[in-house]
Amino acid sequence: MSTILLRCAVSVISLCMMCKPLLAEEESSFWDGFRVGGYTSVDLHVPRTESTRLNWNELSMIVTWDKNSRIKFFGELDLENVATYTHKQGLDFRDVYINPERLYFDVNLHEKANLRIGRFLTPLGRWNQLHASPLVWTASRPLSTTELFPSFTSGLQLFGTVPFSERSVDYQVYTATMNAQPESRGETQYKDMRGARVAINNIFNFSDENAGLNTIGLNVSSYRDERPNGTKYSLIGLDFLLEFNRWEFSGEAYSRKAEHGQGGGSGAYLQSAFLIKNDWYWITRLESMHKPDAPDGDRWVLGVTKRLKPNQLLKFEVVGGSGDYEDIPRGFTTSFAMMY
């Protein structure tokens, strides 16, 4: 891990210095393009069969560089599982670890094409690309977005937006170029990742002034279990987002097949958010998860979320259903998340 982090740091410094001469003609300093921020969240879990615990989930630092040139930088370094408190064990810091979640450069090739180089969130569906706690409605994450594909890819991604008529198409094509990447605990490890996502925006062509986003995406991907002679998987999926008046509907569905025609599992979720009043939202989610080597999980989530500020969310939810997954326990959870 230390060798990988050192290589990442050296690469970032070297590439930043390569960018500097391109901006020599500008009056402002090269370093003015840097911005620092991040996010954090704290959860209180009251599981059905385990002890109540208080978790400080992550402390994220995000560094960006943007001088309105053809090159941009994005880096995110997370301190994960910062601390846990239970009545029996007290305050526990043993599970804390550092996760270099994202580290990449974007190069603008054309007004409709960009190249991303580095470690990035795998562009499968919606949740995986917007999973930060202050950006999602619930404290728990759908099982289908954690159990069926790798959350991160280290390699190349070509992406952009192509407008047509009243709509537009977002595309993302990616491939892994480095398999020996930092591990994220609890994440299934894969290699030889490659795939694509295409999303059509404003698909219903709403004309109502209250209409919001309406997008549908198609995802295809293939990858291999990192273990020696690991199974190769192919995956296909759909995702959508619909915002209209006081409602937001979203969902994702995936079907995965192993090589030689074997079943590889499937999963899906459907979620709604309804604006009640004064930035209080009622949240409902139904989800299903099936894998050959794990118990089936059929879950429901009911909750309310308060947007305290544009960058702060307070969440209360109850998770029920079947299947035991350690990172998403059934029971009651309250969470506070903020960006800074």
Q: Please give the order of strands in the largest beta sheet.
A: 1-2-3-5-6-7-8-9-10-11-12-13-14-15-16-17
* CATH fold-level assignment: Porin
| Contiguous uncertain segments of 5+ residues | 1-27
Largest beta-sheet characterization: 16 strands, antiparallel, barrel
| Rg result | 21 Å
Order of helices and strands: HEEEEEEEEEEEEEEEEE
Keywords: Signal
Signal peptide: 1-24
Organism: Methylophilus luteus
Protein name: Phosphate-selective porin O and P
Description of the molecule:
The chain has 340 residues and is mostly beta strands. It has one domain: Porin (Beta Barrel). The protein has one helix at residues 2-19; strands at residues 34-47, 53-66, 71-86, 90-92, 97-110, 113-121, 152-164, 167-176, 190-201, 211-225, 232-244, 247-258, 263-277, 280-291, 294-309, 312-321, 331-339. The chain has a 16-stranded antiparallel barrel. The two termini are 28 Å apart. The model is unreliable at 1-27 (pLDDT under 50).
